[in-house]
Design brief:
Elements: H1 2-27, H2 29-34, H3 38-91, H4 96-137, E1 159-166, E2 177-184, H5 200-207, E3 215-220, E4 223-224, H6 230-235, H7 253-261
Antiparallel strand pairs: 1-2, 1-3, 3-4
Length: 262
Amino acid sequence: MRYRRELDIRRFAQAAGEQSNLVQLITGMQEIKLNNCETEKRWQWERIQIKLFRISIKGLALGQYQQVRSVFFNQTTNIFISFQAAYAVITGSMTLGMMTALTYIVGQLSAPIEQFIGFSRSFQDAKISLERLGEIHNKRDEEQDLSLKRTTLPPDRAIHLEQLSFSYDGADRNYVLQDITLDILEKKVTAIVGASGSGKTTLIKLMLGFYLPNKGCIRIGDTLLQDINHHVWRGSTGSVMQDGFIFFRYYSEECSGRSRRD
C-alpha cells in the first residue's frame, strides 16, 4: 500500500509537470522560435515522457507482482489441500467421494478469493485517490476565521522568515523553498535575486499570505502573518507579479450615453 501510494504521488506530480510543460510550449511558442531553442525544449519534453514511462513501468511491475503473489497463494493452497485429501484417502481416513466433494468445495472458493483480492486492490486505489482529493478539500478557507484575526498592523513591520519550507502540493516533498531564514527590515531596500524558477515569486506570494508554509513561519514584527487579517495586510502592500493579468474595463451603452450627456 505504501509503495503504491508513493508511485501514485510520483505519477501525479510528473503528469502535472507534463501538463505545465505542454502549456508552456504552446503559449511560449513565439519565444521558443525567437531564441531558437526548439531542440532544447523537445529534449525537455522527451525527458518528462521518459520519467512518466519509467513510473508507469514500475506501477505495471507492482501490479504484476501482486497478481503473481495472489495466484501463487491461491494455487499453493489448492495443492496443499488436495495433497492432504489424497493422503487421507490413501491412509483410509477419508473416502474417495469425500475427497471429490472437498475438491469441489475448494474449487468453488477460488473464485471468491480472487474477487476479494481484486477488490482489495480497487480499495487501495480508491483510498489513495481519496487521500489526494483530501489534500485539496481539507484545506481551511482563509475567510473562515477572519473575524478572529487582527485588523491593525503591529508597530514593527519588519518581515521575518524563520526556517521556512514550502511545496505546492501541500506535502512534505518536492520543496520549492526549503529552510529559508530571511529578515526584511522596515524602510530598507531589500533585493531578492536568483535564477528563473528559483522561487522568488513563490516567496512573494508567501509573504502576501496566498499560501501557508509547510514548515517554519512568517512574522510581521512579533506577530504571525497568519494571525493578521489578510485584507488589512494586502491593503497595506503593493506588488506587481510577472504574470499579472490586465482586466478589460467594460462600459455599458447606458453609462457611456450618460457620460456624453454630462
